[in-house]
Amino acid sequence: MNKLAILLLLLSFSPAPAQEIAVLKYGGGGDWYANPTALPNLIRFSNRQLNTRISEKPATVEAGSMDIFQYPLLHMTGHGHVFFSDKEAENLRTYLLSGGFLHADDNYGLRPYLEKEMQKVFPDKTWTEIPPDHPVFNQKFHFPDGLPKIHEHDNKRPQAFGYFHEGRLVFLFTFESDLGDGWEDPQVHNDPEEVRQKALRMGANIVQYVFQN
């Protein structure tokens, strides 16, 4: 029996909630736990704006665990080192090809490590920049210029990259934007409310895209 068949059997006995989000815990020493107030704030915003019913306390799941299959959306962040074992990469690949979605938000310094490790997950796919007319930027909230700039790091434009499978975006990497900092409690970064709203609206778009595709 293959992994997907086992998963379907498990889910038949223990159905998971349809709308949940989990934080992805990864190896390599990076701070996967960064921005602790970010995701709960995004979830509360999404529940208000999108009428979702997501648990305000996101779960934490490990890349190699079967638990990831219980969540339609995984979120990861950090400032640097990321490592996926071959087993973890295979598990993530199966999850993403089976309908899951991974959003990785660069908290600064994540890109070179993540790009290398995601090649293990999809050695046959190309890391693609997501254009502003993609549906993820045009859900309830519209971002005609694409990914918004929230925090400045290296004076570069914000970019969104990803992988597609059968026309569906399955992995989104938000770079030079730092959405998660904008999602955090106001006193953490002292961002103007206008900036926080841009970050939260973009995050809600990601949630809406995932739950509808």
| Rg | 16 Å
Regions with little confidence, pLDDT below 50 for 5+ residues: 5-17
Strand content: 15-25%
- How is the largest sheet built, in terms of strand order? 2-1-3-4-7-6-5
Largest sheet: 7 strands, mixed
| Overall helicity | 25-40%
Which homologous superfamily in CATH is the superfamily? Answer: Domain of unknown function DUF4159
- Structural class call reads alpha/beta
User: What is the global morphology?
Assistant: globular
CATH architecture: 3-Layer(aba) Sandwich
Count of folded domains = 1
Walk me through what this model shows:
There is one protein chain. The protein starts with a helix and ends with a helix. The chain has a single domain (3-212), classed as Rossmann fold, CATH 3.40.50. 36% of the residues lie in helices and 18% in strands. It has a seven-stranded mixed sheet. Helix 2 (38-50) packs across helix 7 (193-212). It is an alpha/beta fold. It is built from seven helices and seven strands, in the order H-E-H-E-E-H-E-H-E-E-E-H-H-H.
